[in-house]
Structures are given as structure tokens and as C-alpha cells.
Design goal:
Blueprint: E1 2-9, E2 12-19, E3 22-27, H1 37-60, E4 90-94, H2 101-109, E5 113-120, H3 123-135, E6 142-146, H4 149-155, E7 162-167, H5 174-183, E8 184-194, H6 197-200, H7 205-212, H8 222-239, E9 243-253, E10 256-265, H9 267-270, E11 277-283, E12 289-293, E13 296-299, E14 306-309, E15 327-334, H10 341-349, H11 358-370, E16 379-380, H12 381-388, H13 395-404, E17 409-412, E18 415-421, H14 425-438, H15 451-456, H16 475-478, H17 509-512, H18 516-530
Helix pairs in contact: 1-2, 4-5, 5-8, 10-11
């Protein structure tokens, strides 16, 4: 991204921005966040790969069927060059377009596009979009549109569905999900961003439930839990219309989460949702967690014949079995895989250096490819060591101990010290107890009913080996890939909500709310006096 110049035209601030193949101008306070260049670059890569498969599916099948393996040859779909309209291509809706930058980049950098609707509720934003579309010469592909995003999608819920819908709102996306689920075509792709991480990460569980239908927890793996809460929310909206989702890629980056899911229609497949969701029991003392599925599958002797059952409760005691701490319950969350291994492999095969954040995309996708996709949530090394007040164990040492014990382990792209594993919690704490034997805890820590005293009062069932395992150091780390990006600029974050409004009489929310409590109190007083 490059900001070329800033000028004033009739006292209106005009900023010229160059990102990828697009060159745009923004007027006034229409929203633009340069930090999300990674978001836009990754979306372009995903759509480059997805469009080829989807166009081939449409041409070869009368009805799109679920094909999560992505085993077809990418080159078999004969697509035109980038920036050229393709009548048999995909249709895209960017529901909240702001400057139009994302839509213009899609038009100029993704082959096989038939049409892009760049929509926004702000008249000023749509004026910017029209000018930028003309300046970038993509009028034949990008159509600026002024409408309420939800109403626009509801208009397309039966006829004229979109193959791809991109939702990148400021804050929570849940108000757009009902209409988006109905407006995306069968087998189409839904791209959803959420930036309200404080709510999703457990700071306000009651607000999280009201917006996403799930209770968030203050847990060290809160970023992955946030992704899984968003996925269950999308699945919940989809099931109401006999639809369900298949996640292709889910990431946590910077200050937001972003998911890429395919949407299919099948009332029968919706029944399997019960086995894809789980409640989470979390210990506030040692940060241990246990998942309890909402339902379970029981296969019969007949092929493809399943029965659905309910699990027995409780799955955890009232007090944590490791430290005696209090257990909190959160969820439900999506407990099925959040990535498609085949799709991530295809993304890695098709990364190109024309993307500005190429190095970061390469590092993140390699880490995701190495992650354990069937082990929800993760421990963190700093939390394990901090609970016992001991010297922090080297990451390779604890990974080796887990591998030597016969379990699997991986990093998480969501946390530098994340430990994803299929090892039970007892094994993890036994490994920590073995580590303590060579790195003793101060005696004062063992006094009283503290988590460290409770955990270390139990001896490990066996001695675990910390000898370096050949698989302890993953390829992404060996290769020195850019796995964790430093803050891209000072004071980075979601930015300030766009202030461009539909009408001139609209005030900013902060100004509207000034003196709100005093006005309410005075109204209550006057009412009581009249009574």
C-alpha cells in the first residue's frame, strides 16, 4: 500500500491511495484502513483459487455438490486474463464497500469474474466508488450500488443469488448473516470479518450471547474460540434455511478474525450440526479446558445410515481435577475443523509475489497447514509456566515431550506460544510436573490451597522424556518464514468508524449521546412531578 498524495478540493480532504493494481481517491471521512491490506491480499488469493474450481463445477455439474477435497486440476478451467469480464464467471457482492478499493482490486487481480456489485449505504461513499471505478477502467465489471446491505441481499435471496458475498463490517457481522446466507448461491463462498474482538474474547459474555448466540470465555485460546463462535453463528443462520457451511479457511490476524466458508443446501446434512458444536468447560485456576459435544453420531449397519444421540452429563466435576479451581461453561462453539487441508494446500501452490503481503501470507498459510485441524483450542506455554510459577520451558522441549509420549502437537497461527495437541490435560500437567523436578518452585508457592500447590501435590504417573524429537521443530520455523507479523504501524487497530452518513442531519454517535443521562433524569423528574 502506498499513499501517494493528499490534497484539498473545496476544503474537502482528498487522499490518493495505491494498493495492488488499484489506485483510488477518497474524499472526506469515508472509511479506509491500510492495516487490512493483508486481509484484502488473502481474500484475492482465496478467490483466485476458488473461482477456478467453482466455474468448473458449474460447467460440469447440473447441481453443485459438496467437494471439499479440491482434487480437480486447476488449469482445466479456461479463464480469461485478469481484468477481463467473463460471462460464465462468478458474481461477487461486496456488501459494505466504502471506498470501492476491494472491489476494484478483485476486478483487476482475479480472473473469471462476471460482475461485482460494490454496495454502500453512504451516498458520499458511493460517489467515491463511482469515481474510482471510472478512474481504474473497470466499469464493465464493477457496478456501484447505493442501498442498505441487508435489504439488497434479501432482494437476491431467490433470484440472482451471488456466487461470492464479502462481508467486512466495522464490528459485529451478525446483523448481515441472515440475508447473506439466503443470497449466496448453492456451493457459493461467504467471506466474513469480525473486529469486535473484546466481545468475542470474553470481556462481555452477555453481549456475545446476544450478538452471536454463544457465551465467550476469558481463555488463553480466546482467538480460536472467537473464530469458532463466529462459525457456529453462521451455521445457526444457515440451518434455519436447510443450509449448512463447510469452512475452507479461518484466520485470526491483527485485530480481527476472518472466515471463508462454502454454503450448501441439504436438510439431511443439517442434522449433523449437532455433532459439530460443543460447549466448553474452562478452569479459571489453571486454564485447562474440556469440550462437550451437543450431540453424537451412532452409525448403523446400513451404509450412510446414522442415528443421533445426546451425550451423558456431566463431563467434568464441579471443581477442576487438576487444580481444584472453579469451572465456567461457555459456548456452544464450532468444534469441527475450521480449515480444509486440501484447500490450504492449493492456496500454498498458487501464492504469487504480486501480493503486497506475500511473505506474511506464505508464513501464515504454512502454519495453518501444519496445525492439528481436529484438536479445538490450545494451551499456551506462558500460561502453563505462569500457573506453576516456574522457569518457562523451551517450546521445543514441551513439544518433544508430547511427541515422545505418543501424542500429536502443533503450533497455532493465532498465538506465538500456542500448543495445539490431542494429549489429555493430565498428560500436559504431568509433563510440567516432570519439568518442575529439574526446575523447582519456591517453597512459599506450595503453601495454601493455590493452583500450583494442588497441581504439584500429585506425582506424575511416569517420567516424560524431553529429548529433542525430530518433528518438534516444524518446517515453517526451520525455513524462517514470517509466521507472526509485528504491528504494521503505530496506533494500529480497527480505526474509527466511517462518519459519512446518508443525510446531512445525522450526527455522530458520540455527539448524540452527550448529556444523555442528564436528559433522561430530567425527563423522569418532570414526569414524576406531573403525576
Amino acid at each position: 500500500m502506498d499513499c501517494d498524495s493528499t490534497t484539498k478540493n473545496n476544503d474537502i480532504l482528498i487522499q490518493e491511495i495505491v494498493e495492488g493494481c488499484a489506485k483510488i481517491k477518497t474524499a472526506g471521512k469515508v472509511f479506509y484502513n491500510p492495516v487490512q491490506e493483508f486481509n484484502r491480499d488473502l481474500s484475492i488469493l482465496v478467490l483466485r483459487v476458488f473461482s477456478r474450481y467453482f466455474i468448473e463445477e458449474k460447467s460440469s455439474l447440473k447441481k453443485i455438490k459438496e467437494s471439499p477435497t479440491f482434487s480437480n486440476d486447476l488449469q482445466s478451467a479456461n479463464l480469461p486474463e485478469k481484468g477481463v469480464k467473463f460471462e460464465n464467471g462468478i458474481s461477487i457482492l461486496e456488501a459494505l464497500s466504502a471506498t470501492g478499493l476491494r472491489s476494484i482490486r478483485y476486478a483487476k487481480e482475479i480472473p473469471g469474474i462476471k460482475q461485482i456489485i460494490a454496495n454502500d449505504l453512504s451516498e458520499q461513499a458511493v460517489a467515491d466508488i463511482k469515481r474510482n471505478v471510472e478512474d481504474n477502467q473497470v466499469l464493465d465489471i464493477v457496478t456501484p450500488n447505493h442501498d442498505d446491505a441487508t435489504m439488497l441481499m434479501y432482494k437476491h435471496r431467490r433470484e440472482g443469488r451471488f456466487d461470492v458475498i464479502d462481508l467486512d463490517p466495522y464490528g459485529c457481522p451478525s446483523i448481515f448473516l441472515d440475508s447473506a446466507i439466503q443470497a449466496v448461491t448453492d456451493g457459493g463462498l461467504l467471506l466474513v470479518t469480525a473486529t469486535d474482538m473484546a466481545i468475542l474474547a470474553g470481556n462481555s459474555p452477555e453481549t456475545c450471547y446476544s450478538k452471536y448466540g454463544s457465551v465467550s470465555l476469558k481463555i488463553k485460546s480466546c482467538h480460536e474460540m472467537a473464530v469458532r463462535i463466529l462459525l457456529q453463528c453462521i451455521e445457526s443462520h444457515a440451518n434455519r434455511y436447510s443450509r449448512y457451511i463447510v469452512p475452507l479457511l479461518s484466520i485470526s490476524a491483527d485485530f480481527y478474525i476472518r472466515v471463508f466458508v462454502r454454503v450448501y443446501t441439504s436438510a439431511h446434512k443439517c442434522k449433523f450440526t449437532l455433532s459439530k458444536l460443543s460447549n466448553v468447560f474452562h478452569c479459571t485456576g489453571c486454564d485447562s479446558f474440556t469440550l462437550q459435544p451437543l450431540g453424537c453420531l451412532k452409525k448403523n449397519d446400513k451404509p450412510n445410515n446414522f442415528k443421533f444421540g445426546l451425550p451423558a452429563v456431566p463431563v467434568v466435576p464441579m471443581k477442576c481435577e487438576h487444580c481444584g479451581g472453579t469451572q465456567h461453561m461457555g459456548g456452544p462453539i464450532w468444534s469441527d475443523p475450521i480449515h480444509s487441508s486440501d484447500f490450504v494446500e492449493k492456496l500454498l501452490q498458487n501464492i504469487s509475489e504480486d501480493l503486497g503481503t506475500f511473505r506474511r501470507i506464505e508464513g501464515v498459510l504454512n502454519m495453518i497447514n501444519e496445525e492439528l485441524h481436529d484438536s479445538p483450542l490450545y494451551y499456551t506455554l506462558d500460561r502453563l509456566s505462569g500457573t506453576l510459577h516456574t522457569e518457562t520451558m523451551p517450546m521445543l522441549a514441551i513439544r518433544s515431550a508430547i511427541l515422545n509420549a505418543g501424542f500429536r502437537v502443533s503450533y497455532s497461527h493465532m498465538n506465538k506460544t500456542g500448543i495445539k495437541t490431542d494429549a489429555p490435560g493430565k498428560v500436559i500437567w504431568d509433563i510440567m510436573r516432570c519439568w518442575i523436578q529439574g526446575h523447582p518452585v519456591h517453597e512459599k508457592r506450595l503453601i495454601g490451597e493455590t493452583p500450583v500447590a494442588k497441581i504439584l501435590s500429585v506425582k506424575p504417573e511416569k517420567e516424560y522424556s524431553f529429548k529433542t524429537h525430530p518433528l518438534a521443530n516444524p518446517d515453517s520455523r526451520k525455513s524462517g518464514l514470517l509466521r507472526f507479523q509485528e504491528n504494521p504501524q503505530p496506533f494500529w487497530g480497527p480505526g474509527t468508524r466511517a462518519q459519512a452518513m446518508v443525510g446531512e442531519d445525522k450526527m455522530q454517535k458520540s455527539k448524540r449521546n452527550q448529556g444523555k443521562r442528564k436528559r433522561e433524569n430530567s425527563e423522569d423528574t418532570s414526569t414524576s412531578e406531573n403525576i
